[in-house]
Fold:
Amino acid sequence: MTITTWSRHLLIGLMLVAAILAPVGQGNYITYVLTSWLIFSIAAMGLNLTLGYAGQVSLAQASFMAIGAYSTALLTLAGWHWMLAMPVGLVLCFVVGLVLGYPALRVQGHFLAFVTLAFNTLVFLVLRNEDWLTGGNYGLMGMPRPDFGIFKTMRQVDFYYFTLVVTVAAALVMWAIVRSPWGRAFKALRENPIRAESLGVDTRRITLLAFAIGSAYGGLAGALVTSLVQFIEPGSFSLVHSLRILLMVVVGGAGFFFGPFVGAAVVILLPEVLRFTEGYYLIIYSALVIVMLAFVPNGLLGIGAVLRERFWPSRQRADMAQGAKLK
Amino acid sequence: MSQFLQVFLSGLATGSIYALVAIGFTLLWQAAQTVNFAQGEFVVVPAFFVLVGLHVLHLPLWAAVALALVLSLLVLGYLFKKLVVGPILPAGGISLIIATMALGILLKESIKEFYGAEAQPFPALVPQDPLNLFGAVVSMQDIMNLLISLGIVVLLTQFLNRTRTGRCMQATAQNPAVAEILGVDVKRMVLYAFLVNAALAALASFLITPVYLAKFSNGETLGVIAFIAAIVGGFNQIRGALAGGLLIGVLDNLTATYVTAEYRAALPLVLLIAIILLRPQGLLGTSEGRTV
Amino acid sequence: MSQPVLSMRNISKSFGAIKAVDDVSFDVNRGEILGLIGPNGSGKSTLFNCILGQLRPDAGHVEVNGRDVSGMRASQLNRLGVGRTFQQLSVFPKMTVFDNIILAGQEHRGTMASRLFGAPDAGLTEEADRLIGFFRLTHLRDTLAGSLSYGQQKLVDAAMAFMAGPSLVLLDEPAGGVNLTMLADLKDRLTTYNAEHGTTFVVIEHNMEFVMSLCTRIIVLAEGSVIAEGAPADIRANQTVIDAYLGG
Structure:
């Protein structure tokens, strides 16, 4: 192991410890925010796969959260255990992702952005109008938290640890994807798509699958949200929320593995920090985003990578140090 | 039948205004590689410039409108290019898309904070009396809107096809590298594209706000409709954006009247998905070439 | 007589009023190194792009190992056993030489699923190292491809084209911009590879020296038609060819 890999492992270990210790001694509200951070990290991880690795803009991540949330809610309200309800939402999101992505990705250009934008709005309309199923504007409430017999998640802090386990599992799966030959194909597709195609990389198919998997991650996040908040309504899954998740990926650094965690932290915490500005916070926030994109398009971890290269130039494997250049 | 005619004409009128917005959007996309997700807000802001002119500066209507037009050109045209697109476009199209989304939020929230959240009445610039046409009751405003919008489109087409500057702009849109070699001032042409878009957005704003009142949140629907119109029509042609706008305007009205009010907003979205599925180059567009 | 690896039958292609390729036919047999040469505008690039599926001929068809490849996507063509090199920007700059080569082979191993769940190197480390060794790039194995010299990148490009064991490789101006020492190296590696594996090459090239010494057979194009065909020595002495290059 090189020094950098060793220090990397140490860093990850420290982060895990920090995550485990974080809610200790904190009140319910802080624990709730931390859980929310984990859940949005999952959603952002999925979108990072689509955007950062496969280079496609999806504006529907919130609607996939909605699909996961509502399907889990309806099933758990009907008596299913969360562990059985959640996969239903996952599979549903994956399939919908395939169906949506297939026509949109056949054509060059940012068509997926438009299709996902339309889809998000459509989903919102359905959620709002079909109240026989979704409760309409009043939403659904009273969803039970998962119960594992010896371990119940009713308390906020217990649910946090449950979410942490799920998040770590999701991250491990994502790590496996990114380290596999698929990860290499994504890199190639970002750097030189024509060369990649000429070497047999089916760019369309792999992009489509990335989008479908990314959407499934959205569904997982949604399934967790249902149990966290125990009350869901259409307004939580509107287009604005898809934009928020997109911002998490971009601010953290698209194409960097830990970007989503950093980005989610910033996007969730910043409103708290800017709370004193009251109504102006969105204005400041969006202005900051524009400025950030002008000066650091590769996000916060992008700054880190630039600094690291400057002070510790490395000859290590490129895919460990670099993120995507959004094109 | 007369009701149908009413609904149809009214739809055409609204659609013609959508077309203006869609044309501007297409122009920016083609000539400046800018997919402007703040286009909807671009159509809301000029109306508020007018309101500021009227209620804060106490200008007469014509002066307020003139001021609003100038401000729109300056802010939504020149400043937009200089401060947002210029710095961010080199970083890639996706960064720019996200930046324009953020800009949309910025504009929307600014209006909400600095002017107000309630819908504001907006003075009509054209007479609003009802007319009787073949038994259908149509508002003069609709007819005027339709005529004015079509007039603007014709003027724009003439400008692009018959004047030297217009042809240079077209060349820049088709192939900036070659245009540059041929001596076209590409940077300036791109600036003109931004200015034209700002003007189109402002004009659309003046025409449509009397109907829907001025509200900070109008941009959401307008923006979505604009680019759906552009894509449905065929985003590589101005004619396409015009056709797309008119089509959506008419279909939207027909749907709302005869089919469903709740899912009215779904129509353009379904249209979009259908077009991308069946004919991605749009109704009037030409095939862009091989996909990757 | 075994089937030709590449078969061009009555290919014609026009761009508006300009007939770029006019009824061109030829076969390429296994193991041959065919050179396609001709003055500018002779139609060789157009022909090349027809083989690669980037252009659809107006008439005639292109067959690789007996299969019609018109309109095929690049990735499909590659899976069929056709490799190619590029004139420019041919490597993945932010990946190491090793990763570049692995990528070139991984899409031919297993399915999408096996590539997702299998080993990160798709089991190709040995093969990749062998190929890297063949091109004498072992000392650069873990260097980012973007930091290599132009000539070295061309070698990596060639290695990538060969990694999947293609039956046909199309080389697009392989000698362009390469210095003399590298050039000799490149020619030596290509000739050796051809001798060892029997892979068929089709080369488009402007560098006469390079083409004449590398290729086993040459086809000369001028103004869209074949004007001469044969062994390098014959082509050199062919008056029609000399006229085409020098004449108006």
